[in-house]
Amino acid sequence: MSCHIGSQLLDVKPIFEALEKVLDLIERLRAAGHAITHIDLGGGLGVAYQPEDRPPTIPSFADCIRKRLQGMGLTVMLEPGRSIVGPAGVLLTRVLYRKRNVDKEFVVVDAAMNDLIRPSLYRSYHEILPLRKPDRPDVLADVVGPVCETGDFLARDRKLANVAPGDFLALATAGAYGFAQASNYNARRRPAEVLVEGDKWRVIRARETYDDLVRGESL
Question: Which end of the chain is more exposed for a tag (fewer CB within 10 A), N or C?
Fold first, then answer.
């Protein structure tokens, strides 16, 4: 049995193909006298990094699992964490200035590769949205940070809002692996983490200070 939910790129069919192989192994192990009572399907649910992505929902995925394993006497474990926390987080950044180099347009922001390394590390796509949509035509530009090296970018050749210095941008789907991969590279302090609950918000991780950077160093 397979369960075709989600878009073509985020279909869970490969998960169910792996499940069939694991179930075959369970049958052989049980036939050999081993009491197999649990099965862990791990994670693997896709995250909608791009607007056109259509990931499967957790309930629809779980329902397919339930139907396939019904009556088999197995306790099922799932780890859908990334599909929950990924879309729940955004990285907020302020535009510092704009510049042009021959035919290349740059939007320089105060976030950098140390804050969100996924685009630089493995070309991950994060949608970039303006907090306020300017009344100007969109532009094609690179979104880069203030660290002076070629790897310090958050997007390349991206069509985005024609923002100006002082405007704010939100990098979407940064909740999974974003802060976990952040660092103090180039002596940059990591940003604060803020939890938004309805119309309320609170700081759940304080912004780092210079003292945090040098703590542990011997004089």
Answer: C
